[in-house]
Amino acid sequence: MSSLEEQIREIEDELRNTKYNKATSLHIGRLKAKIAKLKDEAVTRAMKSSGTGEGYSVKKSGDGTVVLVGFPSVGKSTLLNQLTGTKSETAAYAFTTLTVVPGLMEHRGAKIQILDIPGLIAGAAMGKGRGKEVIAVVRTADLIIILGDVFNDRHIDVLVKELYDAGIRINVPKPDITIKKTGMGGVRLNTVGSVDLNLEEIRTILAENKIMNADVLIRGNVTQEDFIDAMIGNRRYIPAFIAINKVDLIDEMSKKAIVKNLTKQFGQSPIMISAHSGYNINALKDAVYDHLGFIQIFMKPVGAPADMEEPLIVRAGSTVEDVCNRLHRDFVERFRYAKVWGNSVKHDAQRVSLPHVLADGDILTIVTKL
Ligand SMILES: Nc1nc2c(ncn2[C@@H]2O[C@H](COP(=O)(O)OP(=O)(O)OP(=O)(O)O)[C@@H](O)[C@H]2O)c(=O)[nH]1
Ligand SMILES: [K+]
Ligand SMILES: [Mg+2]
Which residues surround ligand 2, an ion (CB under 5 A)? Predict the structure, then answer.
């Protein structure tokens, strides 16, 4: 075991043996910051030693990218093939897949890229197996499907922990924290709303990272972990859901038990599928679509009725500029103004500019220079 891992283990032990109360909260904050820093170092070291890794850089395409994360042989490749018609190799032995295999799924008008990757194992975040290359791919995804099968449903938490250790935060919004380093003046704190963290805790955590002077702005309540994440940076906030494969191999009772157990553990019920038989695959596709958050935009050419038949499918939060980029290479350059009818504007035919954020069902006209 590397000395970095030993150090992490030691501090984690100490943390476990420290009871939280007002008197220990500073010490606990310091320990957590230490662990986060060491882990960050370990992950960075693992990433560096990996080189780029042949077959691991895949160009993003489509309206969103989904990655299938799971232990070896849970059926990631079989699922990719079922969803996209790709022919990723499948077999009954572990580590059949050794590179990233992309496929394209079309569902409800959206084109969604699905990435099949090698199996993840415990310790992956620290570089075990092909962990480092695999994690680098996962970090770029718009959505993670955590795939288990009916034989390992009790170990989904291991995958979740690996993602966490690799700086991936699933199903939580990015905490609104800004840390601006300054030359002098110590640590100054500004808060919006009630914040449980106090200045002393923040000073202690920053000091662990040798930051003695900074202007800190926190909007909304945050935990010590959130603050440490903001200090270390490079965290990725990605939605995720759990699917359990190979349900064709168990009876109804065992199926219910798995659903109950996972729902209790993660607060969301898993989607039970069979990548072989296609059972519940449509529900899985719907879940992908919903989690990626697509909206429909109806284009209306100047002086003509809107096309209500074939909406443009874009991610929620998309701006007029995003739509321009989708439609034509030089639309942004030639852009004069746009008009919008619908939920994102106060009145019909309202004039908007490129940064305007669109809403589901909006009708949009783009006026360009010739
Ligand atoms: N019964 C059953 N078997 C399945 C199902 N999906 C996959 N399998 C089998 O499980 C084994 C592993 O499938 P793969 O698709 O290779 O699994 P993987 O997760 O890609 O594996 P690695 O690439 O090695 O990590 C193969 O023998 C598949 O035929 C399913 O829904 N039901
Ligand atoms: K396999
Ligand atoms: Mg595979």
Answer: 73, 91, 96
Q: Is 280 in the pocket of ligand 1 (CB under 6 A)?
A: no
SS3 of residue 327 by DSSP: helix
Q: How far is the CA of 77 from the centre of ligand 1 (A)?
A: 7
294-368 and 64-171+237-292 share a CATH fold: no
Q: Which of 67, 69, 78 to mutate to test the pocket of ligand 1 (most atoms within 8 A of CB)?
A: 78
- Say whether pLDDT at 50 is over 60: no
**CATH superfamily to which 64-171+237-292 belongs:** P-loop containing nucleotide triphosphate hydrolases (3.40.50.300)
Residue 245 has pLDDT above 90, yes or no: yes
Domain with residues 294-368, CATH architecture = Roll (3.10)
C-alpha distances in Å from residue 219, one per residue of 90, 175, 223: 48, 8, 12
Ligand nearest to the CA of 75: 1
Nearest CA, atom 30, ligand 1: 246
Tell me the two tokens of residue 230.
Answer: 């903001």
Give the C-alpha separation, 53 to 263, whole Å. Answer: 36
pLDDT, tens digit (0-9, with 9 covering 90-100), for 94-133: 889 989 999 999 998 899 999 999 998 888 877 777 778 8
Q: Tokens 């519940």 sit at which residue?
A: 280
Contact, 316 vs 293, CB < 8 A?
yes
Residue 93 Cα to ligand 2 middle (Å): 5
Show me where the domains of the chain are located.
3-49+175-234, 64-171+237-292, 294-368
- The residue whose two tokens read 């093939």 is 81
Is 130 touching ligand 1 by the criterion CB < 6 Å?
Answer: no
Q: How many residues does the chain have?
A: 370
Give CA–CA dist 299/316, Å, rounded.
16
Burial of 100 from C-beta contacts in 10 A (0-12 / 13-18 / 19+): buried
Mean pLDDT of 68-85: 96
Q: Is 250 helix (H, G, I), strand (E, B) or coil?
A: coil
Give the mutation target among 69, 71, 90 for probing the ligand 1 site: most ligand atoms within 8 A of CB. Answer: 90
Summarised one tens digit per residue, pLDDT across range 142-172 is 999 999 999 988 889 999 999 998 899 999 9
